[in-house]
Amino acid sequence: MTTDYSQLARDLLLDLLGRGLTQRRLSEGSGVSMTTITSILAGHTATARTYARLRAFSQESAVTPGRGGAGRWSSERRPRKSKGGPTKVGMMVRTLVMVKPDGVKRNLVGACLAAFEGEGLGIADLKLLTLSPERARELYRVHRNEPFFDSLVAYMSSGPVVAAVLEGPDAVRRAREVMGATDPAEAAPGTLRALYGESIQRNTVHGSDGEEAVEHEVGVIFGPR
Ligand code: CDP
Ligand code: MG
């Protein structure tokens, strides 16, 4: 009987991703390319050598009691301790992201959500809605004195958006990493804004920039909880 390395590799990958490791981190740690990892997850074959590399990495990064304590993440990946508060769900941290009107119009909702999910961020809540100008103003109130405020509000209320609460370790920072810089022209290659952004304003996705923003924005979109 031959060993099905593809199945073993796929199970191992799913287990590692389930522990909060990103595909990028997995690739760097194991030496297996991102392309190979993606293809194994999509059901393609894995060689014995690839499986061995993933397994070695899995054993190295295992959470061992006494070396970082019990938990789902190795000490390196564990989210920073905080005083708690409503943004924490157990050890998970949440953030709010939105696919903006330009993204919804161009059928990019799936691609954007897939990018966040691909980084191990899970969807805890999801909503399609059209912001009234008043709600858009409230959402972006920190920018009320910026010269672009009125045009931002008009744009954000020009069509439906898809808002999601994402959960995962270090969710705020990681979601913003997936999105890229505000100006698509300056966003790192492969980020959502680099791939899809049309201009600094029509930059396809939004992501909260800190815990306070998460509280405010989740409240504006999903109501108090
Ligand atoms: O969205 P992000 O946190 O990266 O950037 P921001 O500085 O908080 O700006 C919020 C949003 O305002 C951006 O995502 C753009 O849609 C818009 N904006 C704009 O229209 N013109 C600018 N010069 C800067 C931002
Ligand atoms: Mg911002």
Describe the structure.
With 225 residues, the protein is α+β, with helices and mostly antiparallel strands. It contains eleven helices and five strands. The chain has helices spanning 5-18, 23-30, 34-41, 48-60, 101-105, 109-118, 133-139, 149-156, 171-179, 192-196, 211-222; strands spanning 88-89, 92-99, 122-129, 161-168, 205-207. Strands 1, 2, 3, 4 and 5 form a five-stranded antiparallel beta sheet that branches. It is elongated, with a radius of gyration of 19 Å. The termini are far apart. Mean pLDDT is 86; it is low at 63-91. Bound molecules: cytidine-5'-diphosphate and magnesium ion (MG).
Summary keywords:
single chain; 225 residues; alpha+beta; 2 domains; 5-stranded antiparallel beta sheet; 5 strands; elongated; binds cytidine-5'-diphosphate; binds magnesium ion
The chain-level mean pLDDT equals 86
Percentage of residues in strands: 5-15%
CATH class of the largest domain: Alpha Beta
Largest sheet: 5 strands, antiparallel
- Spans of at least 5 consecutive residues whose pLDDT stays below 50 are 63-91
Instruction: Encode the helix/strand succession as letters.
Output: HHHHEEHHEHHEHHEH
Number of strands: 5
What is the first-to-last residue Cα distance?
Answer: 55 Å
Q: Name the CATH superfamily assignment of the largest domain.
A: Nucleoside diphosphate kinase-like domain
Rg of Cα set: 19 Å
Q: Estimate nothing, just give the exact number of structural domains.
A: 2
Question: From the 3D coordinates, which CATH architecture of the largest domain would you assign?
Answer: 2-Layer Sandwich
The helicity comes to 40-55%
Shape: elongated
Our count of helices gives: 11
Which class do the helix and strand fractions yield?
alpha+beta
CATH topology title of the largest domain: Alpha-Beta Plaits
What ligand molecules are bound, each kind once? cytidine-5'-diphosphate, magnesium ion
